[in-house]
């Protein structure tokens, strides 16, 4: 079912087709597609660090840098994918193309493990510098797989959530609640897929065969493609309206052109107020924030207006509605910036906990079975998975009765609590690492060996508290971010809104690489020694965690300041009724 969103005036001879929202009926296809897509992508990427060091013989720092650059590029590419979706192709076509591309990327990476000529010879030496590295064409083939994954993720990540929310009617109470629950249950199934990937798939990769272990994710991605296209007939497909960024650019350009003009005393009454009657975007009230942008809506004698009330040249005159939509996007940016440090703390948990686990006792009890190091991240996913249904079905209804708010608490309160939890997680991580390293020298584990160095007698299960806190932080902040961007952006920018979570992750990947580079090079020359060497026992990883903690504390303060300043979309400084009356007066004059 095509959902027409183009702007036009009401006419007796032209009516909008009725939209048949399928809601939960479309969810098996959408969430199933996303689940298997994540099973494929995470099944490959969760153990990629070990694959690069053990199969491609890359040094630890080189592998970490490559993954951070890959993650950063992948997440930044979502903005381009979102722009193309909202402007030209729509979410359905973008998702279809990107799903096929992701499958091809996973297939190429799987081939590097299957064929010996596509990776360096196996190295038995514990010193990675003595091993033969990959040739240029071997790296080129591997990076081509990464490139296909980047293209696939650029379309899937920003569009999947928005496409799922498109299936619910936003004008009904059941539809609104369906959208809210969809965000929570989307992450629930997503995390379930992650748990399967970092347990069963990682076990196959680490203990059975890299060839089989990388072929399984490619098969998952192929199933994802079939599931997505299987629901084609029942999807609501929103048509793109053209570039939503053009309107924002017009506001910025015109406000600069008219920067010397004086704003009227009552701008909500005097500024140019025109809104296409059938626009997909909701009517926004006037706000005093970023008042310099209001000058874009000042009508001068040179400005010409059409008979329907719209401006002849939108690069010379913008409407109040356009200005308020631009303000919505600009207001989000300071909140988005606060999420960058939050993502850095989460990334550290995912990266260094693997190496902490490698140099800890990973045996379960007195058995000979060892939990694979990459599997320990499952505990953060487990805490998220357990918390989401409790939060959605018990906590939110309880808080709703107390506060009267639809979500129990505001979106920013939810995000803020998640950011605070990352500070606790970093503190706990520092103390646990200090304990692990102390036990290496006072009570090393006998009979246990690691290619990286001595193994501590501390059980790797001591890493569970920091991972659980990180999982709870994601349940609050990551889901809160998705809901925040979806609801605070103009409706015609929802794919771009979906990309903002990943843009924050991209910025954090580059910031994380920069932090590691600075710390590695600065402390490497110090008398106290390198904080982040190959062998963690010779380093000071706990100091690095304390550094992340300090950044997190400053970030919490910054976020509180931004949250107190922020105005939610629709909460203006003047009545929306006044603006609607002004709009009708303008239309009566020109029609």
From TrEMBL:
Main location: membrane
Pfam name, any one: PTR2
SUPFAM superfamilies referenced in this protein's UniProt entry, alphabetically: MFS general substrate transporter
Extent of the signal sequence: none
Keyword ATP-binding annotated: no
The entry's keywords: Membrane, Transmembrane, Transmembrane helix
Localization, UniProt: Membrane
Statement: the UniProt record of this protein carries the keyword Transmembrane: yes
Membrane topology qualifier: Multi-pass membrane protein
Membrane-spanning residues: 61-83, 95-115, 135-156, 183-204, 210-229, 367-390, 411-432, 500-523, 543-566
Family per similarity comment: Belongs to the major facilitator superfamily. Phosphate:H(+) symporter (TC 2.A.1.9) family.
Protein name: Nitrate transporter
Organism the protein comes from: Solanum tuberosum (Potato)
Lineage: Eukaryota, Viridiplantae, Streptophyta, Embryophyta, Tracheophyta
């Amino acid at each position: 079912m095509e959902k027409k969103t183009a702007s036009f005036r009401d006419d007796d001879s032209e009516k909008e087709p009725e939209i048949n929202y399928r809601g939960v009926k479309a969810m098996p296809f959408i969430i199933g597609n996303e689940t298997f897509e994540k099973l494929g992508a995470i099944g490959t990427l969760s153990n990629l660090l070990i694959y690069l060091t053990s199969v491609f013989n890359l040094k630890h720092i080189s592998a970490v840098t490559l993954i951070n650059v890959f993650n950063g590029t992948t997440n930044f590419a979502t903005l381009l994918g979102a722009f193309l979706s909202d402007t030209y192709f729509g979410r359905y076509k973008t998702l279809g193309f990107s799903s096929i591309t992701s499958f091809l990327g996973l297939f190429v990476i799987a081939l590097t493990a299957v064929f010996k000529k596509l990776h360096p010879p196996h190295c038995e030496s514990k010193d990675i510098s003595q091993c033969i590295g990959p040739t240029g064409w071997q790296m080129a083939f591997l990076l081509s797989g990464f490139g296909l994954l980047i293209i696939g993720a650029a379309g899937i990540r920003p569009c999947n959530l928005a496409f799922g929310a498109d299936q619910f009617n936003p004008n009904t109470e059941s539809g609104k609640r369906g959208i809210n629950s969809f965000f929570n249950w989307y992450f629930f199934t997503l995390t379930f897929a992650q748990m399967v990937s970092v347990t069963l798939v990682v076990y196959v990769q680490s203990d059975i065969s890299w060839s089989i272990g990388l072929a399984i994710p490619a098969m998952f991605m192929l199933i994802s493609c079939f599931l997505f296209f299987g629901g084609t007939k029942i999807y609501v497909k929103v048509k793109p309206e053209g570039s939503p960024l053009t309107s924002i650019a017009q506001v910025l350009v015109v406000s600069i052109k008219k920067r010397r003009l004086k704003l009227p005393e009552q701008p909500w009454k005097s500024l140019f107020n025109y809104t296409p009657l059938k626009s997909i975007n909701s009517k926004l009230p006037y706000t005093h924030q970023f008042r310099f942008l209001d000058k874009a809506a000042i009508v001068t004698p040179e400005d010409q207006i059409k008979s329907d009330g719209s401006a002849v040249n939108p690069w010379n005159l913008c409407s109040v509605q356009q200005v308020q939509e631009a303000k919505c996007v600009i207001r989000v940016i300071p909140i988005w910036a606060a999420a960058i440090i939050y993502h850095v703390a989460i990334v550290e948990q995912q990266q260094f906990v693997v190496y902490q686990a490698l140099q800890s006792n990973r045996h379960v009890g007195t058995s000979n079975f060892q939990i694979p190091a990459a599997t320990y991240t499952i505990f953060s996913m487990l805490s998220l998975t357990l918390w989401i249904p409790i939060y959605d079905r018990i906590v939110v209804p309880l808080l709703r009765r107390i506060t009267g708010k639809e979500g129990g608490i505001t979106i920013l309160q939810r995000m803020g609590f998640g950011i605070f939890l990352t500070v606790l997680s970093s503190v706990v991580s520092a103390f646990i690492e200090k304990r692990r390293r102390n036990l290496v020298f006072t009570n090393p584990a006998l009979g246990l060996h690691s290619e990286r160095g001595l193994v501590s007698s501390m059980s790797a299960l001591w890493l569970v508290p920091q991972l659980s806190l990180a999982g709870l932080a994601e349940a609050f902040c990551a889901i809160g971010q998705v809901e925040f961007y979806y609801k605070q952006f103009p409706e015609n920018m929802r794919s771009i809104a979906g990309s903002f979570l990943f843009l924050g992750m991209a910025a954090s990947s580059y910031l994380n690489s920069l932090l590691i580079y600075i710390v590695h090079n600065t402390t490497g020359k110090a008398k106290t020694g390198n904080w982040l060497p190959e062998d963690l026992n010779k380093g000071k990883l706990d100091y690095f965690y304390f550094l992340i903690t300090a950044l997190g504390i400053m970030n919490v303060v910054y976020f509180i300041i931004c949250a107190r300043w922020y105005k939610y979309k629709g909460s203006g400084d003047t009545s929306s009724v006044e603006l609607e009356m002004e709009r009708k007066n303008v239309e009566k004059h020109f029609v």
